[in-house]
From TrEMBL:
Catalytic activity: (3S)-3-hydroxy-3-methylglutaryl-CoA = acetoacetate + acetyl-CoA
Domain Pyruvate carboxyltransferase span(s) in chain numbering: 34-312
Keywords assigned: Lyase, Metal-binding
Keyword Glycoprotein recorded: no
Gene Ontology BP term (one): L-leucine catabolic process
Entry EC no(s): 4.1.3.4
Pfam family for this entry, one: HMGL-like
Pathway per the UniProt entry: Metabolic intermediate metabolism; (S)-3-hydroxy-3-methylglutaryl-CoA degradation; acetoacetate from (S)-3-hydroxy-3-methylglutaryl-CoA: step 1/1
Protein name: hydroxymethylglutaryl-CoA lyase
Coiled coil: none
Molecular-function GO term, any one: metal ion binding
PANTHER family registered for this protein in UniProt: HYDROXYMETHYLGLUTARYL-COA LYASE (PTHR42738:SF7)
Length: 348
């Protein structure tokens, strides 16, 4: 049966909102694979109040790699004076296990950080089959107040500072990923105009970033505000170049992930056991838990290549090491279910 464009729009309009959203995503992007970028070892650990040992960082990354995570943020080349938990990133990169087909991006805030990374890569033996990393991440904010509080400069100044970093990284064969923080709300300014996010994202693409991660730093986003922001940004940047990064402060992380997937986004940032927070956003909790995201995505028929059992075990392990509650509801439920099954088997 042939249906003209007007009739097709009419039929879509009759669908329930969520069904209509997923209909759009399936037609916009045929792929059912969602790439998960695990940010726990960097964005998650950097806010921990107690020191995290080098051995723990390495084991966490190795466990995540063994669980099948396709991309794992391994650390940050930032001054330990400002982010003590990121000390030792060079040692992490050289001592951890590198899984085939897994990316290990690192955050690089400035030219000094890039120089440190390039020195490390130059010292790598020439006969090494895989580089320690082939990707960096840079970050800017969509809020002037947040930018000044976080890095003590305006948005325009931060972009000017990052332009030569991006060019130098690309010249050395590194891919560059751009983060935009406070895409929904700023802790100082309140709601952010989605078109401000669009303008910053477009400038990062023009600078040479291959992907733009849109971060709800405060965690106030809802499916509506999330979709409005994505629609605005995707009017200037192709949705295939966008990633979603949500904090779970108000319990909307998974709902916003599904909204992003419905909008056509196929890269999601998340943190095992819901690790994370933001020192410049009072009350902001951790990133949406990777276990919760994978559970939800698998439940709607998407694939991730991640082994849920190993992921859940990793979340429980790091929560125990850090002496903190496991923030993943899917993870704790999965573990409880496994214990119940084991108990039932023991009775037989």
């Amino acid at each position: 049966m042939i249906v003209n464009a007007g009739r097709a729009r009419s039929l879509r309009a009759q669908l329930p909102p969520l069904a209509r959203a997923f209909h759009h995503s399936r037609t916009a992007q045929a792929s059912d694979f969602v790439r998960i970028v695990e940010v726990g070892p960097r964005d998650g650990l950097q806010n921990e109040p107690s020191p995290v040992s080098l051995e723990t960082k390495i084991e966490l990354i190795n466990k995540l790699g063994d669980a099948g995570l396709p991309a794992i943020e391994a650390g940050s080349f930032v001054s330990p004076k400002w982010v003590p938990q990121m000390a030792g990133t060079s040692e992490v990169l050289t001592q951890m296990k590198h899984f085939p087909n897994t990316k290990y991006p690192v955050l690089v805030p400035n030219m000094k950080g890039l120089s440190s990374l390039l020195d490390l890569l130059a010292a790598q033996p020439a006969n090494t089959s895989e580089p320690l990393t082939d990707e960096i991440a840079i970050f800017v904010a969509a809020s002037e107040s947040f930018s000044r509080a976080n890095i003590n400069c305006s948005i325009a100044e931060s972009l000017d500072r990052l332009a030569p970093v991006t060019r130098a990284a690309i010249d050395k064969g590194l891919r560059v990923r751009g983060y935009v923080s406070t895409v929904i709300t700023c802790p100082f300014e309140g709601p952010i105009d989605p078109h401000r996010v669009k303008d910053v994202a477009r400038k990062l693409v023009e600078m040479g970033c291959y992907e733009i991660s849109l971060g709800d730093t405060v965690g106030t986003g809802t499916p509506k505000t999330t979709r409005d922001m994505i629609d605005a940004v995707s009017s200037a940047v192709d949705v295939s170049m966008l990633a979603a990064h949500y904090h779970d402060t108000y319990g909307m992380g998974v709902a916003n992930v599904l909204t992003a997937v419905a909008a056509g986004i196929r890269t999601i940032d998340s943190s095992v056991a819901g690790l994370g927070g933001c020192p410049y956003s009072p009350g902001a909790t951790g990133n949406v838990a990777t276990e919760d995201v994978v559970h939800a995505l698998h439940g709607i028929g998407m694939t991730t290549g991640i082994e849920m059992g190993k992921l859940v075990e990793t979340g429980a392990w790091i929560s125990n090491i850090l002496s903190r509650p496991n923030a993943s509801r899917a993870g704790t439920a999965w573990l409880a279910s496994q214990k119940r099954l084991e108990k039932d088997k023991a009775k037989l």
